[in-house]
Amino acid sequence: MSGEAAVSAPGKTILFGEHAAVYGHPALVAALDHRMTVTARASTFSERGMLRLEIPSLRIARTVALTQTVDAVKEPGDLAILAVTIGTADLIRHPDGFHIRIDSTIPAGSGFGSSAALAVAVVAACRRACGDDIAPDEIARLASSIERHQHGRASGVDVQAVLRGGVLLCRLSDDGFLEREELPGAGARLDAFRLFHSGVPNETTGEMVGAVRRLQDREPARVREAFETIAAATRDGRAALLRGDGAALVPLVLRAEAALEAIGVVPGGVIEAIRAIEAEGGAAKISGAGGLTGAGAGLVLVAHAEPEWHERFTPPKGWIAHRVRLGAEGLRSEIAA
Ligand code: PMV
């Protein structure tokens, strides 16, 4: 068997709903046009049953046995190896070897959706390289299982965002099924938002989800109240997007951020920077799991209805602007180089 496929998946931002989404509340997510491209070649490899993995931007070049299972994601490249293992486990005919190359402009470990993009794109590229036209629902199922290895308990909203693209409302139902509603054209109504990278958080998404679970055990009323505020902001955000009123999202950002601070997922330095933005008449919230102890919380959304305000805006020290279009296309085929 030998074949080649190249696919790309976008990054994502959670507009409203992070953390609450893990407990069955809705989340509003948008794909963004940083992309990850995965090229997979299934071949008669020089050594049978081997996986060659190359991620040039991270200087990763590893060759591992395809039978080797990765239980925990520790070393760089482990998530990709896990994605190949899980993504190809139920193929009827296995190739002798895989050669995978990953190129990405999505910042890693910072709420931009790089691990979801990796899970989705590696599964899709490997299966297509084997001639298997895998359906999107099956990609989502496998990618969500890969994500659980990385993060532990997960809502799956980021997998849907990068797979489907555009802007989506997602909700994890009681029986573990992720309901989704596509909001066509909503990406064009997100002009009030600008994206900034506030620095890589010290904690992983899994650690942050664990911290919120422990807080919920200690202070259930506080967490319940915060989740209700987040869920209301998410629902109001959906309604604002459906009626084409992007400016109405700005006060929702203030409410969502206050609730995220109440559950302790915004580190002190980022809270200070966000207070300064609010003092200038803007609003800002973390997007994604956030952080506890470091200087950065990953992706931060800054919101104001007027483009002139954004032009005048000087970002806090160390924050980097990411000028990306929201509502980008989801998983797509690329021509292999
Ligand atoms: O991995 P991140 O930073 O995009 O955060 C994921 C969002 C959480 O709600 C914290 C976890 C989840 O699975 O929804």
What this model shows, in words?
This protein is of the alpha+beta class and 337 residues long. The chain folds into two domains: 3-184 and 326-334, 2-Layer Sandwich (Ribosomal Protein S5, domain 2); 187-322, Alpha-Beta Plaits (2-Layer Sandwich). The protein has helices at residues 78-88, 114-129, 136-151, 157-164, 205-218, 220-242, 249-262, 268-279, 307-312, and strands at residues 3-16, 27-43, 50-55, 60-65, 97-104, 167-172, 178-182, 193-197, 283-286, 299-303, 320-322, 332-334. Strands 1, 2, 3, 4, 5, 6, 7 and 12 form an eight-stranded mixed sheet that branches. Strands 9-10-8-11 form a four-stranded antiparallel sheet. α2 (114-129) crosses α3 (136-151). The longest helix has 23 residues, at 220-242. The chain starts with a strand and ends with a strand. Residues 14, 18-19, 21-22, 111, 113, 154-155, 157-158, 205, 208-209, 288-289 line the site of (3R)-3-hydroxy-3-methyl-5-(phosphonooxy)pentanoic acid (PMV).
